[in-house]
Amino acid sequence: LAGLGLDNLLLALAPSLFWMFAGRALGGIFGATFSVANAYMADLSSDKDRAAAFGMVGAAFGVGFVLGPAIGGLLGEVDIRLPFWVAAGFSFLNLGFGWLFLEETLPAEKRRNFSVGELNPFAALRWLVRQPAMLPLALALFIANTMQRGLEAIWVLFTGLQYGWGAREAGISLAVVGLSYVFVQGFLVRKTVARFGELATMTGGFLLSAVIYALLCVNTSGLIGFIGIVPHVIGWGLAGPALQALASQQVDARQQGYLQGGLSAISGLAAILGPAASSSILAWFTSPAAPFEFPGAFFAFGMLALCLAAWMGAQARAKASTGQ
After folding, report:
1. Does the reported pTM lie above 0.70?
2. Contacts of 51 (CB under 8 A, 6+ apart)
């Protein structure tokens, strides 16, 4: 949180593009907030309640996804640097709140010794893929996150080409996505996991999103596209916390932070690959070089990838149950 506050201060004061990049780099270096928050929730929750706890973290993100751009846009009308000043202030207030009111959740006897070698950003990834029951979940998370980040990167361009939407329609659809995400992760995850369990919730969520990707790749109706994005959010919003809960159940209390760091690293790699892949696919299939124009080509790949993610995720429980 301190790093995020300094990041926003640097952005507010940046005299050139170089310093803006420096601020963003600083934010990335200190960008482990979600990993720590998820580890904190894992410490506070039982195996049965863990998916719901992770869902609450996701719901908080959804609220920010809706309110943040709106507040930033309004403040930016007053002064272009004002959003960064306000964001820095909130970051430092959040830091003070955490310092004063949040207690340590991991007893001293359950903590691991820290080594400098663990600062290697690939150490958690290497540890993660070496866990037999964890590798399928890690692959499922990487595949699904790549598809989700890819969708987010091209959504405005895709809807403009496929449905003729402008900034207004795309903005409204993203607001609906954020509100739906809050509902799913704040309420629906708890009910669904309690009824069907983590494994069924995860695989069902991935498969529901795969169905919507299949629809998006061929649909040309803006109304159907607008309505269809909601069940995709439901599928994605259910699958993510359920997968995290399954992964969290495979390790003891000492390894929760390391696990969440590894999962965040996977999500970070997906955030690099997904936009690059989706934008390249969209650009090629809408260029004269393509054999036919197909703006929805990425979603065809995404449908197959999400089915693979569902299958890979299901292998984790099989491996865990057989002790492989």
Report:
1. yes
2. 189, 190, 193, 198, 201, 241, 242, 244, 245
